[in-house]
């Protein structure tokens, strides 16, 4: 697996995912407006928290250890058996949690509006939604980048069709449930691909949990779970602050800005996840690691400069093409959002190193600091500068997030600098 081959397949999927996501965003924006967008964001955060609990966030650890064990069939079988057992058990408990607590969730998220059917469907479908991490983790770890791209691309296209139909006919209820539909489609498409694979055996998917492997996955999952829950909680709290200081429509504009960022950043982050996690996991020599990180900053950094600048210059066209006239006030948010996205992605490159080398404490320090800074800055920004202040807070928090990683990896930064600059080093 090399960077350019990975980038080609991942890029094809990412572009398809970007286009289908923008089509969904356009339809949702036209039919539901900023208020509906705010509700969708809330549900996405809550359902994401349930997913974290159901899967124990083992996806990154699964990719890492499959990449390490792919030439050791016995270890690989134990790993996959354990992952299946953990996901099935976690999904069952997550379903019970949803079905038992959805009246409270309705009151909390939707102020008592009756969307019971959405939560019941989500709870009953959780096993299929959660199983997507098994499909993507196995294909990613084995280096089956082409098959992974096919699975994700087919799922994205089907998701666009079904989501468009659901939003058009069932309005907000359809949009809320469709938020989880992509995971189901990835699972179903992935099962077909894995069944036709000549490498994997049926007995590798038995329900059997190996305690030692489970602890390794949980170790990875604990880091991912804490950071994911912290991020989603931060988003919920900021959204509530926007509604409190401004209104639900403004919360929808704020949510739409973040949603657009997530759409285009998926092109970059997917390449980073598919290529760098397995690649960095395999590297042992320090000079190889330095070389790989240097290439990452050169390639990803330059790409982000071009992408962010292009999006800012085309902000009016983007709102017209992919949203609706009611989202016009978002125009003033783009500059700060693009600055934040650039620095967050640069920090994310170092986060890939943390994930691949199991440097959990370092990662927690950086991520939790970033979330706390973002929450505090957003509250202050909203209080004194309104909606623009919240987006400026994101930019400032992302800049500090990047410099936190620079400080934590200062020795690596010096070595990368030495590998670039001519001797004598400065």
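Q: What amino acid sequence fits the structure above?
A:
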């Amino acid at each position: 697996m090399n960077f350019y081959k990975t980038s080609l397949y991942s890029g094809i999927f990412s572009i398809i995912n970007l286009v289908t996501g923008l089509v969904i965003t356009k339809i949702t924006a036209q039919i539901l407006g900023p208020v509906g967008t705010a509700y969708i964001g809330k549900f996405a955060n809550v359902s994401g928290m349930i997913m974290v609990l159901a899967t124990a966030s083992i996806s990154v650890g699964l990719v890492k250890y499959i990449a390490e064990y792919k030439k050791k069939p016995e270890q690989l079988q134990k790993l996959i058996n354990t992952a299946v057992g953990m996901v099935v058990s976690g999904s069952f408990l997550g379903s019970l949690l949803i079905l038992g607590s959805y009246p409270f969730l309705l009151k909390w998220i939707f102020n008592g509006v009756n969307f019971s059917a959405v939560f019941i469907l989500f709870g009953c479908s959780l096993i299929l939604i959660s199983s997507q991490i098994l499909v993507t983790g196995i294909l990613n770890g084995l280096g089956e980048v082409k098959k992974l791209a096919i699975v994700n691309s087919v799922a994205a296209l089907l998701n666009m069709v079904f989501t468009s139909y659901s939003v058009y006919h069932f309005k907000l209820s359809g949009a809320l449930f469709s938020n989880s539909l992509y995971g189901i489609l990835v699972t179903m498409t992935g099962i077909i691909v894995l069944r036709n694979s000549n490498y994997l055996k049926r007995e590798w998917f038995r329900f059997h949990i190996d305690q030692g492997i489970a602890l390794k996955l949980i170790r990875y999952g604990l880091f991912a779970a804490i950071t994911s829950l912290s991020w989603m909680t931060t988003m919920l709290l900021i959204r509530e602050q926007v509604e409190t200081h401004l209104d639900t429509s403004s919360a929808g504009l704020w949510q739409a800005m973040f949603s657009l960022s997530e759409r285009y950043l998926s092109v970059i982050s997917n390449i980073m996840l598919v290529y760098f996690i397995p690649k960095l996991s395999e590297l042992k020599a320090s000079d190889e690691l330095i070389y790989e990180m240097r290439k990452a900053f050169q390639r990803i950094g330059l790409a982000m400069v071009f992408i962010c600048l292009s999006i800012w210059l085309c902000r009016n066209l983007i709102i017209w093409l992919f949203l609706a006239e009611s989202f016009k006030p978002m125009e003033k948010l783009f500059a700060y959002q693009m600055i934040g996205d650039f620095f967050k992605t640069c920090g994310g490159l170092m986060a890939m190193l943390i994930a691949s080398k199991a440097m959990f404490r370092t990662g927690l320090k950086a991520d939790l600091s970033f979330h706390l800074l973002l929450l505090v800055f957003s509250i202050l920004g909203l209080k004194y500068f309104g909606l623009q202040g919240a987006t400026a807070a994101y930019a400032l928090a992302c800049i500090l997030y990047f410099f936190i990683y620079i400080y934590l990896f200062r020795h690596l930064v010096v070595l990368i600098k030495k590998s670039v600059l001519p001797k004598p080093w400065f």
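Q: And what stands out in the fold?
A: The radius of gyration is 21 Å.
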